[in-house]
């Protein structure tokens, strides 16, 4: 019997959590290797870049037998196709492709806000825009259990985590604004899936941090937190290795 699949990423949710969800959902026995957010992790990643034989070294990466994949969407698609979670028809697969790309555009837009040097000054006004920013998704998901209706797809886990980027930031908006009811119900539906429920209630799951220390939101709950420019030199200066 070959070695079990290995998923490698930083010890945050970031771009990797949808992959962790789908693997848990499928009950795949895999190694969830998390690199610490300190100089030790940065050194480990520098070494793995050279030793793992990746065509395009990046985090996350996934090793499944003789297949070595980087890029989070490629990994999610591979697992979805392998386990028949990528639609049963050409139309369904195309719909998933469309939603996936829409979600990535949405993530990029959120990323800009969480990286804004004025984030702490604008965050309350930004919260007020969330219902309109998610309005198209809310309309699409109205009356649906999952993206394809009654059946789960891999992209559902990407949708869940994308909504979490808003929901963790402003939970009160989802609880109080009826215009986001379908998305809030979708979140709860994903969380109620037995395998996902077991995972998020286990010590294997980390709800925080969402991201590394390079955003104004998602790493530290300090309201005055200022992100650390991402470089090996900065990591070592802030997180010196023990001698």
Automatic annotation (TrEMBL):
Root EC class: transferase
Domain named GST N-terminal: residues: 3-87
Catalytic activity annotation: RX + glutathione = an S-substituted glutathione + a halide anion + H(+)
Pfam families: GST_C_3, GST_N
Keyword Metal-binding appears in the UniProt entry: no
Keywords carried by this UniProt record: Transferase
Gene3D superfamilies in the cross-refs: 1.20.1050.130
GO molecular function: glutathione transferase activity
CDD domains: GST_N_Sigma_like
GO biological process: glutathione metabolic process
EC number: 2.5.1.18
Recorded family membership: Belongs to the GST superfamily. Mu family.
Function: Conjugation of reduced glutathione to a wide number of exogenous and endogenous hydrophobic electrophiles.
Protein name: glutathione transferase
